[in-house]
Predict the structure.
Amino acid sequence: MADETVILETQPVEIAAVVETVAPAAQSGWRGRDDRDARAADGGVEKVVHINRCAKVVKGGRRFSFSALVVSGDAKGKVGCGFGKANEVSDAIKKATEASRKNMYSICLKDSTIPHEVTGAHGGGFIMLKPATPGTGIIAGGGARAVLEAAGVKDVIGKSLGSSNHANVVKATLAALSALRPADEILRARGKQIKERKAL
């Protein structure tokens, strides 16, 4: 094609703009797959855990809508998740991102891992997290990995023992991280004093 514009109602329109308008869903990859590529925004990390398509049967055919599950964090101990619904993929992700930013809260970390073993549950989701030595990496999959990466955990061992539903796994992981406590706080709750270790 020699011409790179399409004349529509005597107004020139770029072909790229027409393609984006006609098929936004095809470019966004809505087919229920996980799109966990981290996106930096305002110094934070955003991860799209899952995108779901819902079809409503109406008189003229089927009407599609989309829902998105997004995890946001600053990779320094703050993390949250959000859920958004819209008729377009981009709008659903935008709503979910805004919701996740509003629901962010701080968690307790110890260097690059977590201070102690912990479990978390939400609905049918159940997850177990264990601290790991430096260099281990994040041994976890699905929504749990997205939450741990957004929170800034670099070395941890995780295992999902319940439902594989993305929302339940993400919320169970958040519940587990929120239950973490530093060692001095646990000792104070037990009425014990922290003893300083002397070097040999």
